[in-house]
Amino acid sequence: MKLKAALASVALAGSIAAVSTPAMARDTINIVGSSTVYPFATVVAERFGRNTDFPTPKLESTGSGGGLKLFCDGIGTQYADITNASRRMKTSEFENCQANGVKDIVEVRIGSDGIVIASGNDAPELNLSLQQLFLALAKDVPNPDGGDNLVANPYEKWSDISSDLPNIEISVMGPPPTSGTRDAFVEIAMEGGCKKYDWIKSMGKSEMRGVCHNLREDGAFIEAGENDNLIVQRLIRDNGTYGVFGFSFFDENRGQLQVAEIDGVAPSQDTIGDDSYPVARSMFFYVKKAHVDVVPGIQEYVSEFTSEGAWGDNGYLVDVGLIPNPRNVRIQAAKDAQALKTMTGNEL
Amino acid sequence: MTDQRSQAEIVRQSLKRRYRKERRFRLYGMTAIVIALASLFILFADIIGKGYTGFIKTTITLEVTLDSEAMYLDDPTDADQRSMADFNAPIINALSDLIPGVENRAAQRELSRLVGSYGASQIRDMLRANPELLNTTQTMTFLAHDRVSVYVKHADNPNYSIRLSEQQQAWVDELVEKGVIETSFNDVLFSSGDSREPSNAGILGAVVGSLLTMVVTLVIAFPVGVAAAIYLEEFAPQNRFTDFIEVNINNLAAVPSIIFGLLGLAVFIGLFGMPRSVPVVGGLVLALMTLPTIIISSRAAIKSVPPSIREAAEGIGASKMQVVLHHVLPLAMPGMLTGSIIGMAQALGETAPLLLIGMVAFIVEIPDGFFSSATVLPVQVYLWATSAEQGFIELASAGIMILLTFLISMNALAIWLRKRLERRW
Questions:
Q1: What is the pLDDT of residue A224?
Q2: Residues of chain A found within 8 Å of residue B358, distances taken between Cβ atoms
Q3: Helix (H, G, I), strand (E, B), or coil: what is residue B355?
Q4: Mapping DSSP to helix (H, G, I), strand (E, B) and coil, where does residue A164 land?
Q5: CATH number of the domain enclosing A302
Q6: Strands A242-246 and A172-174
Q7: Across the interface, do B117 and A51 touch by the CB < 8 Å criterion?
Q8: What are phi and psi of B138, to 5 degrees?
Q9: Range of the domain at A99
């Protein structure tokens, strides 16, 4: 019996060694990255698979940071070919890519997505400025009695911040720190409101971030999971709670939700597209040029994504909530993408 | 005498109290069962109530004229011409014939959106396969757009928001009346892979992925688990080392499943360089996860074989190995199988470890081998539950029902095996 067990374990080790030969040929494009870009990229991938003879690409939603890490791990078919991001690649990530031999990267700016603050239809309407939003959700806020110092956030009701806001308790559900939506919300909305104070604006970068990027931990800001559907269901049931999520999600549930105006602008395709709505961000995808002729279909996938039929003003991505770039920007971006123009690192 | 009587008296007096206590105790137990059954019932009612509509599809049957001029297509076998042709035109024309008075392009566009986006490719694929059908009129059945389907099925349901314009709603009502829009059993759900369009989304890819993964899990976990159990129970000497192993196996059974995912990521993908998202890696990870369960239940099964059988075999001169292979193993097999099936059922419902090895992914193609990208049933449910489109609400519940069917049948198989094969002494 001992002999048999020994034989069995040898056989098992052998079979593992046999399948572990790396760099197997692959004919399916592997895409990783942001959960915000995922709904757009999956639609493109499905159309691409249906309308060409290439297999449908495989998409994993790993978050922007996780995707860029997998993408930059190296060259070879065991690594991802394309990564999606709801923010631009950071210089540190570009350097990481270079260090791992991923030299030639093509950057494509897809379009924009807004971040909205929404509530169930019966909740009081909210009309905020960025500064009020910061005061409502920051962990520490400038002393309301005046002076250039910070105090723990004393505001319990919206009306404590300004009398024209609703007289209900502040309760906002938002995404967890792993989410790209959270990063963008903190960087654009919180920091934007925070910088309205000149003395905070004049601080050093890291000190300013320490002040602006901390969200309340006393229960007024509720960290929900990555599941935006659950947030929507809570909002419908619970009047007075507001939720933070991407515009495309609001668009899909329009009938059941109402949306807050920020700095007097309500989010819509138009206001996010022309940057008048303040909380909007760009979305990207990155292509590994070294893989283009190794894994079949990458060039064609890029062409499909950058075609007017997909990301144009009447393209099918608009139906899923994409806010297109202006036409001249789009045309240039499509040309660059289809020519596989690589990044130099200086543009970041 | 008096002493005895008073004792009987004491007993009789306390008797009532003791009976009451016992009744209360039984009541607690019954309440617990009622609560458990009620929650189970609520869960099932909720899932079935939400999910049964997922088994219904909405179709639009049209008389399409495959006019080569309208489609800008002379030769359906030519790939270049196909990529430039307008396969939506026949659908728009057929719908315009049914609903007169739709003239301007914007309205026609709205009208054509009643048919899901697969409609045009359906025409293209048909013409590609049968070029002779060009310039004929065919009766074709298309899947309705998700929004139409939601409107037809859930017009009065407050949990769904209707995303059709007033005009489109009127058209749909008219087409339903004419019998053009119909509902029928959703065979698409069982015959296709995932899709971002709820009408076209199917669970077959996930079912095949689950089967492939489970095969790997079974092939690895069962023999290794049984061998380990036999060795530990029958051959291993009782010493500190085997005690240490035993404690560790018991601890492993309680390790959160995500840890096994981390291990799989580090060892199978990182060290051995296996690809992400494939059933082999998923199966290996789940095998590691189920191994302790199988070892523990197999050991219990071996322990429950009466010593008299072992002694009798030894008494007539059987060797240790003959005793194990001829007597202990056959008698312990039903228990081992039951334990393994329960372990496999657990593995079937697992998502957390698969997240890390890339099996939580959007995969349209049906996996065709142990090394092709795949996802599994619970992951498919998760992906649908987190999608924004309204039609996925019912599909997620329908997916849960399918997953539950698999789990219940596996458990039923375990019970049947136990009843059928178990011997009592």
A1: 81
A2: 60
A3: helix
A4: coil
A5: 3.40.190.10
A6: parallel
A7: no
A8: -125, 150
A9: 25-113+282-338
Q: A130 and A218: one domain? A: yes
Q: Which CATH architecture has domain B204-421?
A: Orthogonal Bundle (1.10)
Full-model pTM:
0.82
Report pLDDT digits (tens) over A176-210.
776 767 888 888 899 989 888 888 888 888 888 88
CA–CA distance, A81 with A77 (Å, rounded to integer): 8
Given the DSSP bridges, would you call strands A127-128 and A261-262 parallel, antiparallel or unpaired? parallel
Q: Is position A76 within any domain? A: yes
pLDDT computed for residue A289 by the predictor: 94
Question: Distance, in angstroms, between B206 CA and closest chain A CA?
Answer: 14
SS3 B71: helix
CA separation for the pair B99, B180 (Å, rounded): 11
Inter-chain touch B321–A1, beta carbons under 8 Å: yes
CA separation for the pair B352, B345 (Å, rounded): 15
Domain presence at residue A250: yes
pLDDT per position as a tens digit, B322-372 = 999 999 999 999 899 989 999 999 999 999 999 999 999 999 999 999 999
Q: Which two tokens stand for residue A107?
A: 């950057």
Closest-CA distance, B274 to chain A, in angstroms, reads 6
Which chain B positions have a beta carbon within 8 Å of A49's beta carbon? 364-365
B236 reaches A (C-beta below 8 A): no
Residue A4 lies in a domain: no
B132 CB-contact burial (10 Å; exposed 0-12 / middle 13-18 / buried 19+): exposed
Q: Which residue of A has its CA nearest to B382?
A: A227
